[in-house]
Amino acid sequence: MAYPEIDLIINTTPKKIEYLRKCLFFISQQTFKNFSLIVVNDGNDEETKNLIDNYSKKFFVTYNSRSNDLCVSRSRNIGYSLAKTEKLVFIDGDVLLNPFAIANYKNHLEKKNTCFWGKYGIVYQQISEKNIHDRREVFSNKLIKKYLEEKRRHFWLYLPYIQGWSGNFGLRKEVYQLNNGFDESFLGWGWEDLDFSLRLYQKGIGFKFIGDVWGIHLLHDKEGDFYSDQSFSKNSSIFSQRFSEEFSNFLNLPDEIIFSELSYLEKIGLIDSTKKEIIRNSFFQARKNFSGEITVSEIKKILGK
User: Fewer CB within 10 Å: N-end or C-end of the chain?
Assistant: First the structure.
């Protein structure tokens, strides 16, 4: 049997086994099925291995595990090294792809020198186990519909790399290689994806934000070492020292863009008017005080945390 046309690379950890279970179910529902499944586990547990083994009857499956090192960049680079096709799709193991996503990626990835970012809505309420297999309910979530309709074009237009989140994206193998993959200096949560997207952008790679490969990012706790302030601070420092000018550009976006983004977040119910004002004031204070290096406290103020 010939090897499939696309490699789908999923990064996961043992703590996210239940999210991965849902992720794989939606992968099994894809209308286009001629793709391989490469799962890279930042950890080494039998439960995840057994789950992946169950899918070996449906797909070409490659499974890789290692001792937990909190390096999602390494997971993606390992996935790339195991891929055999020219067309690569990466998703996080807590993302549910819509049933036409891989078919649409297949067509988009005919285009070279381009990275395709498949946006995903965030589910701020848990999808019930009873209805997780009913894709009509899952993909009719009102919050996600609003997210897709808005598309947040004001940010994409000014600084497209800011929206280069790595939970759902596709590119050709030579583009990934041109960028030397993800930087494994980043450990824990944050900034490795913006670092990757910004380096692509600076190399002249085209960016396409496409709605027909969208998915849903499941709500999960941000606890443990991966989400520690220490790792976030280190990652922030790496990024800010490398791209201080670009981050300054972010802080100096036109006021109307900032107001538009905050109004959008208020419209879809993620913040209320009080929170909106707090974030607005924090953002402008950070703009005033930005010294060329990002600190945890500075970022948390900007994010309104």
Answer: N
Decide if 196 contacts 179 (C-beta within 8 A): yes
Collect all residues with Cβ–Cβ distance below 8 Å to 96 and sequence separation of at least 6: 22, 23, 26, 138, 215, 216, 218
Residue 171 and residue 50 share a domain: yes
Closest CA to 193 of 21, 80, 73: 73
Residues in the chain with pLDDT values less than 70 = 1, 119-160, 219-223, 264-265, 268-271, 286-305
Residues 174 and 261 in one domain: no
Q: Is the sign of the CA dihedral 147, 25, 9, 172 positive or negative? A: negative
The pTM score is 0.81
Structure token digits, residue 222: 């941000």
> Residue 42's closest CA among 171, 182, 187, 215?
187
pLDDT, tens digit, 9 for 90 and up, residues 72-87: 999 999 999 999 999 9
Domain count, the chain: 2
Is position 162 within any domain?
A: yes
- The Cα 300–Cα 283 span in angstroms is 10
Which residue range forms the structural domain that includes residue 169? Answer: 6-226
